[in-house]
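Q: What would this chain look like folded?
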Amino acid sequence: MRVLAFFRSLLHMVWMLVTVIPWGIIMLVASLWVGGTGLWWMAVRWLRWSVAGARVLLGIEVRVSGMEHLPDGATSPAILLVKHQSTFETFLLPTLMPHPLAYVFKKELLRVPFFGWAMGRLDMIHIDREQRAKAFGKVVAQGKKLLARGTWIIMFPEGTRIARGHKGIYKSGGTRLAIETGAPVIPIAVSSAKCWPRKAFIKMPGTVDVSIGRPIPSEGRKPDELMREVEAWIEAEMHRLDPQAYR
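A: My prediction, written as structure tokens:
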């Protein structure tokens, strides 16, 4: 079983490489003429290929609940605060959402050949973590502009990938941004580590659950208090989605 999983994972890695290189080049060339949401939906096409590759080659299925909780309207703002267990949800969530997403990420990712170069052409928020005060000011300034255009902000409040069955430290950057912009926060639980473990090469077949919570208004709230509510919902939902991991 594990030998088969290894070869399926190897095949999936090859699939990712042979598709990301030409698509990264296409994105770079297209960015000379196409911008904004047009370029975003071009990027999502490759992400759909990646998710489809995971389904066909790795046997990873996706089950989503709570889509009805997403705000309606072309410019309705939202800040998605997501449980982070693997790379899989970074590819998956843009394929599910009806709005373009802007990830908040460290600028070092822009150096990744093809993938990072293409990301650099999109309306994302890349920050220098060594300049914390300036970094958050940049997040707020860009976040307000993107939200006004109907782009949703997506952040991983734990800051890094967390092993299955564990909980990281929830940082209040996402709720601070929500309060600064007046946007509601939407908590999202993802059980991706059941199939795609943190920092693991071998992936296993199975079902990844994505549970989208109800929007939580940010007006009149304090960042830490709001983040505690987000954390409580996400972690309770993780126990429900993946009870075996929390025995």
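The radius of gyration is 18 Å.
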